[in-house]
Amino acid sequence: MHMADLDGLKVAKNYHVDTPFAYNEGFYVKGANSLDWGMQKHLSNIFDPKSGNTVMFAFDHGYFMGSTAGLERLDLLLPQLAPYVDCFMGTRGAIRSCVPPQITKGIALRVTSGSSMLQSDLSHEVVAVDIEDAIRMNADCMAVQTFIGADGQLSSIDNLSQVVNAGFRYSIPTLGVCAVGKDMERTGRFFKLATRIIAEMGVQIVKTYDCEDFEEVVAACPVPIVVAGGKKLLERDAMHLAYSVIQKGARGVDMGRNIFQSQHPLQMAEAIRKIVHEGASDAEAWEFFEDATH
């Protein structure tokens, strides 16, 4: 029997020779193209692959403020918020004790500490969490408070570099949190300087604040920017902030107080989600929020 006669008996292999290799577009997270698989996997747990954006929920306020209004019972709040956020940002103490492990959201682990509200200057921190514990917690990124233009700038950049070095060793991204020293103005000029310095140190994500010329800050920063919500605003104003920064190129928002100090935290989180992932305007998000809370 000639071998060709057997061809009809089995399903022919199909190598799709006319179809170019599919994975040639690079990776969707800004600046992460040449990172390895593990690092990109962690970034995919933070930034939604469809929208490319993230809704982070920060509840790390307790590490320097103690029990904050709205965060008294993390064990009750966090599981309820989980469906509406992409990434939880907190300390290892709060995450281990209050986030059930079956919640499969991204984890941004706060790794610096040493400040408290009892100090006049918050810019002196230390790296408090070692890389082995970040690995044990399956952290998707490690968050480092970074003070540019403050007393503690040198030790702050030293902290950041230590964490970035350890992160590269084990493929865990670092989130550089741009802190504003008490003598610094929150100007576009300052944020252009600070975000760029932090990115140049090797982080994969920068968290910062909105400012004038924000789209220029984004353009000059070679990694994604996530915007901190900051102090509690009126819900409508917080939605406007989220819409405005996403329009100008931010890849996400990190809302803490603007969610947990809202009278309706779950509906607020869902409204922010619509802006960040579904392209809703602040007016549409507000309409959703009004309907959902009345």
The strand line-up of the biggest sheet is: 1-2-3-6-7-8-9-10
How many E strands?
10
Q: Supply the CATH architecture of the domain at 37-228 and 251-256.
A: Alpha-Beta Barrel
Using the alpha-carbon principal axes, give the shape. globular
Largest sheet: 8 strands, parallel, barrel
Helix and strand string, N-terminal first?
Answer: HEHHEHEEEHEHEHEHEHEHHH
Low-confidence stretches: none
CATH superfamily of the domain at 37-228 and 251-256: Aldolase class I
Q: Quickly name the level 1 CATH class of the domain at 37-228 and 251-256.
A: Alpha Beta
* Strand residue content: 15-25%
Q: Please count the helical segments.
A: 12
How much helical structure, as a percent, in the residues?
Answer: 25-40%
Plain-language structure description:
InterPro entries: Aldolase_TIM (IPR013785), DeoC/FbaB/LacD_aldolase (IPR002915), DeoC/FbaB_aldolase (IPR050456), FbaB-like (IPR041720). This is Fructose-bisphosphate aldolase. Pfam families: DeoC (PF01791). The protein is an alpha/beta fold. The protein has a domain at 37-228 and 251-256: Aldolase class I (TIM Barrel, Alpha-Beta Barrel), CATH 3.20.20.70. 39% of the residues lie in helices and 15% in strands. The chain contains 12 helices and 10 strands. It has helices at 37-46, 62-65, 74-81, 92-98, 131-136, 153-170, 188-200, 214-220, 235-247, 257-260, 265-278, 282-293; strands spanning 54-58, 87-90, 106-110, 112-113, 126-127, 141-148, 174-180, 205-208, 225-228, 252-255. It has an 8-stranded parallel beta barrel with strand order 1-2-3-6-7-8-9-10, surrounded by 6 helices. The model has no long low-confidence stretch (mean pLDDT 92).
